[in-house]
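[step 3/7] fold_predict: job queued, chain A
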Amino acid sequence: MKSYSLYGPEFKANPFPTYAEMRQNSPVCYHPGIDGENKIWFVTGAKEVETVLRDHKRFVKNWRNTLTPEELAEQGEPSELVKLLDQHMLNLDSGDHARLRGLINKAFTPRMVNQMQGRVQSIADSLLDEFAHLGQADLIDTYAFPLPIVVIMEMLGIPVEDRQQFRIWSHAFIAPTINDEEWQNARQLLTDFTNFLRDVFDERRRAPQDDLISGLIEAEEAGDKLSEAELFGMVILLIVAGHETTTNLIGNGVLALLQYPDQLAKLMQDPTLIDSAIEEMLRYDGPVERATMRFAAEDIELGGQCIQRKDAVSVALSSANRDDKRFDAPNAFDITRQNNKHLGFGYGVHYCVGAQLARMEGAIAIKSLFQRLPHLRLDVPVESLTWDTVPIIRGMKEMPMAWDL
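[step 4/7] structure written:
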């Protein structure tokens, strides 16, 4: 089977031609992981990606659910740190996943998200006030990152002054570790992360507040079957997912508008197109390149390939969203695109619980940015932009911008 370059700066700068070749040759193919050794099934066709995301019984998130009782008995106990990091919705199946999702859904109801619009607008305006007079700035550091991290930290009740440290901890949570040195460094960062949260949890138990962490703790103590490990896992997931997706949605969305000035002109002339524009940004260059790993719970035939029990399966959302069998002119950026049934936030039972919040934050952030800085432009050639090399993430590390004062 053909080998592809699926990692590193060159691929991340423009993964779409490679994904197109993979879809054409085989929308389901066996390929080495980032370590060059572990084999993974990469699923790139929209039809096949949707099949995997829909079939949560056979494509499971917890690899232990692929094992026989005998195989499970041979497994050693995970470390305490791993236990605290793994017990979140993205790694759970069936009843455990449904229970945790039901609990967190209470904080992300449409009504509660709508009530936050004023606060999100206030944060966007405040951030713009801080740098609009400078004439240049890194859009990621000054705007795309701080806006969603401040929102989720305020929801959780964590001091926003700690946001840069949380950025470091969050990256350690999602970045793969290839060797022992990387793992040791990541383990120290993640230990610091959990120690920080443990102190916050202890404080909330002593003095509950009107925030999401207090609500999760109260649910735990009220017998809602939220374990200590689940509490850690849920809060860490909310912190990481609560800003990574929106940061990249804002950055990638702004870049797309700048690369397609005709579409930016349409949006400037008719700001009501912002919701449609956000959907096209999620499809065209969404914030999540690949969904988190799934594992085959039994032998499965998919796309003409035989996936065996226990095999790892990676679905490429960025590829599915550019599939010409699903979308007309998939490589064109069109903010008026109709029937835009993209997979930017996943599909099925693991559909992103914070999708509505991310959409709202992205819409407010991008509309406010161009209203305040209508002549915004890239301050470097697009070819020199550096992209995050974490496999599941699609976003820039930096985005130098300039504008006329």
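[step 5/7] annotate
The mean pLDDT is 89.
The first strand starts at residue 28 and ends at 32.
exit 0
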